[in-house]
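@channel anyone free to eyeball this complex?
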Amino acid sequence: MRRAELSLIPKLSRRQFFRVGATTFAGYSLLPMANPLQIRAEKKVQPRGSADFCIFLFLMGGPPQLDTFDIKEGKWTPPDFDIRTITPEIKMPVALFPKLSQADRLKHLLLARSVEAWESVHERGQYYIQAGRAFSSARAKEIPSVGSLVAYEFESRRKASDFMPPFVAMNFSPGGAGLAGAGMLPATFAPLPIAVQKDADFSFVVPEEERSRFAQRWEFLQKMDRELRSGKDRLGRPLLDYNDFYLGAYEMMKRPEVGKILKFSDEEHQRYGATSFGDACILARNLVNANAGARFIAIGQDGWDLHSSVYDKSKTVNHYTLCRDLDFALGGLLDDLSKMPGSQGRTLLDRTFIVAMGEFGRTPGDINPNKGRDHYRYASTSVFAGGGVRGGRALGATDDIGGKVVKSGWGEKRSIYTEDVVATIFSVLGIDHSKKITNTPSGREFEYVETTSGTDFVSPTEIAELFG
Amino acid sequence: MQTRSPEDLRGGELNEIWRFLGSFGQDNRSRTIKTAKGNMVQSSLLLNSRVIKERVKAKPGSFIRKLLDQEPALSNEKLTEELFLSTLSRLPTAEERDLAVAQIRDYRTQGVEDLIWVLLNKLDFLFNY
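replying in thread with the prediction:
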């Protein structure tokens, strides 16, 4: 029998391929690859470029600002928080953050207390923080996440020896919104999602004794699957995308160094809090230390959505456990990165921008009748460190119950919005945040940082006051 | 066969299968990334997970072992066809047949293991099967 009768994928001539490509959905999504993206910068922005990496700790569910980094004491405050004044502007619940309240760690942290979110539901809020803009069902397919844009921008700076994907997401599967991906950008800029589990053997690590046979099998596969992986099939982009995933995976798997990056000791596991969130932070440290191409590392800490029994220690997940897990993980990162050498004669912490924030804050003042706190978008605290951040400070202030921003604390007279945080991430990584992609599949311009999101027109800008 | 809940697969050797299914979105819905798009984890698991590596071994009682042990012995061409039919539900093209036969000619057992590994990693296995 001839192939044409056998294969479920009809063979198309080159001419047919282009004709189909022009009319089908697959062909449509090929557009950004066929025509390179047209990008222009709107205004002259001088990106800061003070970091090589960004570690984004996503405190999923929304931490209560007034029980953490913007502590407000009231009748709701449990007596065992051990609240102490560390510096004139920073009070900390020392019992909750024994590591982060210590002067040698706090000196790295900047607590931005004038942060407001635009959304009050998790799905939309978690999307907002990943994409830097409101969810739009009309555009969601083409919108790249912040991590994917960073990955795309770093493509030209990628070294030939880089083997890790530029965007890695660990312990990160937002319940409602899902992990935002590459959108209109090629699949190579999609996040690599790693579920970190202790003692799990990572499929990216090929055992030493299997390496030669693995290489042979790979060669055999390339020959046997040449046709489908060449992009000449009518399925087009989905096959090419999948081939990209294979190539990206192989890029890692052929390198023995991957084994060292995706590995941590028992001592480290304990020191980072013995949680999968902590383990992911160890791997993030390994990734930036290896300097092997990973630039944007997103890590999720789930569980902050405590509508009831927030202070109840009998619950498996409560305010105390969440704070402790964050304390260990972020504390470990600060300790290790500040001792490791980074580029330009600085420490790795100096060259790594760390952001820790949730999608919104929680209801201020007294706890609710269920002894919990609900979603609240009008005040929250974002924590920044590294990448040139001058720590040991608080920026902005809220009222006595942590419910209203009363001092913006930075160059703008308004609160800090997600867009400003995103603009700052771009700037720190040396990316002009005023850029726009003009030839999107939908035809609508795509702004790296949206100026018309939320409920008001804002002019997003980097938060220059974070830096010394 | 009724698919078992991924939650039943936790623990011991089943953990591996749970992770494999999880990477393809078959898992607790509140924990799984909601997308039909692929990712590098899926590729790496197809290339290098115990789930796949164990299944392509010519262990006693396995489908591959039975094929290899048939009396009278199957020709290399016939063996290739059987493996294609059992994985991709189609016969090989002439080019594929030649490549496969060359692979299993000299080291039959190892060649057959490699061939079925390749078939499970061919894009048509994911996209057509």
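from a first look: The first helix of chain B runs from residue 14 to 23.
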